[in-house]
Amino acid sequence: MGRGRTIQRGLIRDFESRNGLTHAYRSVFHELCRAMDEPGKRVCAISSAGPGEGRSAAAINLAALAARETGESVLLVDADSDGPSLHTAFDLPAGPGLAEVVREEAALDQAARPVKSHAGLSILTCGDRPLSAVTLAESTRVGDVLQELRGRFGWVFVDTAALLASPGTARLDARADGVVIAVRWSSTRAQLVQQASEKLEAAGARILGVVLTQRHYVIPSYVYRRL
Hints:
Blueprint: H1 2-9, H2 20-35, E1 43-48, H3 55-70, E2 74-78, H4 86-89, H5 98-102, H6 108-111, E3 113-114, E4 121-124, H7 133-138, H8 140-152, E5 155-162, H9 169-173, E6 178-184, H10 190-203, E7 207-213
Parallel strand pairs: 1-5, 1-6, 2-4, 2-5, 6-7
Antiparallel strand pairs: 3-4
């Protein structure tokens, strides 16, 4: 429950507001639209160097904005087997979820649950018995699932585990069409971000940029750039 409360603190509360948080994430999403402009190739992994970087809140905010601004169906996937949290953030049961879909124990229609508070947004939780990042990275079934998601949703955001703490995360991220790295403002060392970037590059992932999280200023709280 503790992590769920932490995520809640980083979420956009008013999408009509012009405050720094809303403006920042809207700007990041518009950059994503330019970088991922090919329909059917909009699976975006949200990762980070280590835990506690605001990765899950960033994934939720971007997914909610995508549903709101595009009018398309959007799916938010919890693939963080080290600390699944999206089911807690949205007060949903842990499963069936991604693990059950990959194991073919549940159909996608059964596992993906609409979010009442965000029209067009659905959640695919991690599952009752989560699969490790290594298993997900190596599973041929995951490729089939991702391809199905590309055909059914305008945008798919995947909340993955910390790159430097979870073996297999970089290879799992590489299966997405692009990766955004969440970096905690004034906390995460540049060396760790560089190491995380190198792991992604070695795995063949397409790095789209970084988003700064938990910055408490009136000015826009983001940096979106090429690494």
